[in-house]
Amino acid sequence: MKDLAIVLVSGGMDSCVTAAIANSQYQLALLHVNYGQRTEARELKAFHDIASYYNIPKDGILISNIDYLSKIGGSSLTDLRMNVQAAQPNNKEIPTSYVPFRNTLFLTIAVSWGEVIGAKKVFIGAVEQDSPGYPDCKPLYYETFNKLIKAGTKPTTCIEVETPLIKETKSEIVQMGISLNAPLHLSWSCYKNTDKACGVCHSCFLRLKAFKEAGIKDPIPYV
Question: Could you tell me the domains of the chain?
């Protein structure tokens, strides 16, 4: 019997590949969080499609809603008054797509659930290269969070956050996904659109560049 792992699946390319990695070693439970983001409905569809692809049973799926992040705002993903920036690949500042303290909230939900269902790992598809300014995509953040889990859970709980993609380039992630038969055709990365990806936002830019560098055609539709 394989140990149980929770995978945070946004529906994006990185979380899709992370699920494929975890699936090769663990029994999967999948977590998705709605937080009032622009493409919430489309991301949720991608999540359900990925969960179906891996035949995850209903008791292995948790969909959580924390729409207070949209009420807090401060991010172009959650505040409709802010424009979604076109990609600025050479900009070293934190982009407007950063959602304040978001990954901490996601991981907290995962650890709470994991403590109840007996999970040994929590997988998250964080990638340091994605946004040099994102503070919650750095290895130090996850090392610190794992210390917090040990300090804040039952003595018998043994949960560790895994970030298998954190040091990978985006093109390497595409190649890993292909080698693991990850359902990249079911994933959705666009920050802006829900029918055809915009192709110009930060996430679309990185995804298209990654597929091009990997020499593989991106299977999702673009404007």
Answer: 4-214 (3.40.50.620)
